[in-house]
Design goal:
The complex is a heterodimer of chains A (112) and B (110). Chain A is mainly β. Chain A contains no helices and eleven strands. In chain B, 38% of the residues are buried. Classes of the chains: A mainly beta (112), B mainly beta (110).
Chain lengths: 112, 110
């Protein structure tokens, strides 16, 4: 069964550094999403991406965040200058139809 | 009012029990609805979509009441493996923005 994959599984970085989180969505899916989940809290929507552009973004997704689909398979989330409060699990999801979403296993980001 | 609101639980039930969860939503997340389950430190997994006519998948039944703005999930004949957090999810027009509830914890005990 096809699945969404994410790398790395765990990223440790120092405050102020840039990180890139990578996702490979399911191959025939057209809609892509990033979410974050701070430990013990709910899943929070960051951004959706369709047809090579951002469809919707939340208030969390400010200028330090960017997304890219650099080739036909990868979907990346860049955080330009990490803060302590960016420490969270980041989930990528993809969907064939913009409704039912399939999540990757997540990248745990720890900012020290 | 939160956009998608759930009773956090926990619900502690014996194996074989029937358990029901409710979720309420505000207008901004009012187009499409889903139930996901999330195991500890894992990704959310889609359980089922929720339709106004109600839908059933094995032991699971989901209902949507648009007039009262709530969604329900009924689990019959609970199994130990049903222990998880159940997430109520609403999506706005086009499905581009998805709002998750904080989840309801379920523990099924032998």
């Amino acid at each position: 069964e096809p699945e969404v994959t994410q790398t790395p599984s765990h990223q440790v970085t120092q405050m102020g550094q840039e990180v890139i989180l990578r996702c490979v969505p399911i191959s025939n899916h057209l809609y892509f999403y990033w979410y974050r989940q701070i430990l013990g809290q709910k899943v929070e929507f960051l951004v959706s991406f369709y047809n090579n552009e951002i469809s919707e973004k939340s208030e969390i997704f400010d200028d330090q965040f960017s997304v890219e689909r650099p080739d036909g398979s990868n979907f990346t989330l860049k955080i330009r200058s990490t803060k302590l409060e960016d420490s969270a699990m980041y989930f990528c999801a993809s969907s064939p139809s913009s409704y039912e979403q399939y999540f990757g296993p997540g990248t745990r980001l720890t900012v020290t | 009012r939160k956009e998608v609101e759930q009773d956090p639980g926990p619900f502690n039930v014996p194996e074989g029990a029937t358990v029901a969860f409710n979720c309420t939503y505000s207008n901004s997340a009012s187009q499409s609805f889903f139930w996901y389950r999330q195991d500890c430190r894992k990704e959310p997994k889609l359980l089922m979509s929720v339709y106004s006519s109600g839908n059933e998948d094995g032991r699971f039944t989901a209902q949507l009441n648009r007039a009262s703005q709530y969604i329900s999930l009924l689990i019959r004949d609970s199994k130990l493996s049903d222990s998880a957090t159940y997430l109520c999810v609403g999506a706005g027009t086009g499905g581009f923005k998805t709002i998750f509830g904080a989840g309801t914890r379920l523990f099924v005990k032998a």
